[in-house]
Amino acid sequence: MTSLLVAAISAGTPLLLAALGGILSERSGVINLGTEGIMLMGAVLTCMTYIQTGSLVVALAAALLGTAMMGVLHAFLTVTLHANQTVSGLGITLFGTGLSAYLGKPSSGIPVPGKLPKLDLPWLDSVPLLGKMLAHQDVMVWASFVLVIAFHLLIYRTSWGLHLRAVGDSPGTADVMGIPVALFRYTYVIIGSMLMGLAGSYLLLAFSSSWVEGMTSGRGWIAIALIIFARWNPVRALFAAYLFGGLDALGFRIQLLGTPIPSYFLKMLPYVITILVLMYVGWKTRNRPSGQPEALGVPYLREQRH
Fold it and tell me: Is the pTM of this model over 0.85?
């Protein structure tokens, strides 16, 4: 059970990072369906740069910079040009998927020089269950914990968070109050894209060790679903990501037990359960507010504000 929970945290971390990025973007009123492509670009840029430089810090910086540029592109199309956000996001996914496949060919199969460093906390080993789960996790897992707390406080406990929610719910009202709507949307779309890129970097560094085309295996789309499941709340996103991570790890461990269940069925199990959970949550909350930002997906035209 302990090893399964440790694996759930590890498998859920890239989903959590991507979902946090999506929450920030959507809280500002901009849908970003480019998660899958951005994660792939984060992974391939990390791989290429790490192999060339041997520096993990430089590799992560390259991934953050590259995916920030994808965020700028998406923000420019949707915020400045008022393009359809769904179409733009799908375009970003197709662009990122194709470009990552092209850029990654020379690096395919070449292992990166190292892994993410572990943050060993032996004094936690004495704590039942929780200690063994957290005592030897890598630095990215701990960073994700910090981000969850920071974003929760930002969104619900600060004036910046109040402005962010105002921009996502009623950009016209926010504009009248003097809040720079376009600047807020640009900022959070870019930061969200960088977190998605970091999720791709984590997949490479924690699981694969070398570039594999399409290595996200649909995790970007699952992260988008988890945003809805978490009702745009960072803390709920943490538990949702670990739920999916646990199901993913459970399927792998069932295969190791030599079960007669086909491996393809076990691989699709987390995705099927995610769909069923979303259906159940949607049905249970059908008569309650969803928590979705009211202006989500709606371009803001300042001349039409009211």
Answer: yes
